[in-house]
Amino acid sequence: MKKIVTLACAAITGVSAATAQTESNQWAIGVYGGLTEYEGEIASNMMGILKDNYSFYGHGAISVNRFLNKRWDVAFFGSYGLLGAKMEGMEYDNEGNNSLVLGSNASNQAEMKLKEVYGDLTAAFKFVTKDSCRFNPYVFAGVGYRYLMEKDSEKYIGAEGGDVVIAAGIGCDYRINDRLALSYTARYGYTLGDDKDQYECGSAKDQQLMHSLGLKFAFGSPKDSDKDGVEDKLDKCPNTPLGVAVDANGCPLDDDKDGVPNYLDKCPNTPAGVQVDSLGCPIDTDGDGVADYLDQCPDTPKEAEVDENGCPKDTDGDGVPDYLDKCPGTPSAAKGFVDENGCPTDKDGDGVYDFEDKCPETPGIKENKGCPEIKAEVKQLFKKALNGVQFETGKSKIKGKTSFAILDDVVKVMQENPAYKLNIGGHTDNVGDPAKNMQLSKERAASVREYLISKGVDESRLAAAGYGDTVPVASNKTAKGRAENRRVAFEVEF
Question: Does the model's pTM come out above 0.85?
């Protein structure tokens, strides 16, 4: 039977449970029913459930348990029931003595029945300490007392009286909820006396095994020192101020999860992960009114006025913040052309700011956007070149010594004025096919460009384009007008 009980407890362990009796519910009352097996000189019925002569002798019981700590309980167990056994080789005598006789010649089977009142006080050692578990197996031991009374005076008269009992056993509780548990115990009792069953033989003492199954109801008043509604044993914040709303762990609510509870948080909607100060507000290291997690310029001086990103304002957009800008009205076009004070630069000192100067490295005049003034003789040369550069009829090949002389003078001008860039434009009259005229003008402009390059002018300073008959300067109705329209134009660019 002990093996069966042990296996039953082990099987229930797989369900994962614990006793309902805890620090919160320190008292428990149990109600049980069960059977009692007896072992003595006149009966040998313990562990005899499979024997033919086995009889069920029931009992009812109650228990009162007191929680001591997570490992130990103390309990009182009291029961009332029958004690007895069927025995072969025993019969009542025929002499009217109302007693049992032993002997191998006995022809009847006798049944002994006694009333038993039993109680013990034991200490129990629990194997499981976690309140979250539902199952708690335990062992217990202590001392008890049994009192026997006759069951049927016509058949058997027992010597009423009691014996001290050494009690020990195993048990297991399955927690149904926080207050109710299903409980089983197997309680072994060894009596120190041996005459209350009206038979004493040798040195063997009476023994009994009580199997009890019932329900335990736990109760008590959970301790809640800070009055937050969470009992102390579950309270992870045991000193919460009175009236503060708490979570299931007894800790003040912190809705924005910034580490500062709601009742202290001056900035209750801080985004997750943002570093905050002791008041729960996002840290603003430079004190500019923009929190660090939003501040794109976290080291702004205190005197600087900032925008919504925490960066110093730059009203004129020149790249120098207002608090450092000595020229706060600089046009936006000057961005990138200002000094450390926010003022426009003029590298060549010609009075034309660099952002407007087409020749920022070469002194020039304002009328020419900061570039040097084109000399009169250069203008005259380019005017001469308009119709002075001649080509073979219908071709792009330059002809005549006059043409080469003019182009050589252009080369000299380019060499003397390194800031010059030259746009070469080819033009025709309207005689012939417009598409062919366009192609011819492009080829003639390219021929002039190639000549200048061959004379040492850097090709990066020369550009050529053909315009055909699209840009006339005179009427194509006369020979003179058509002659003026057939030209090569030179335009200086910086």
Answer: no
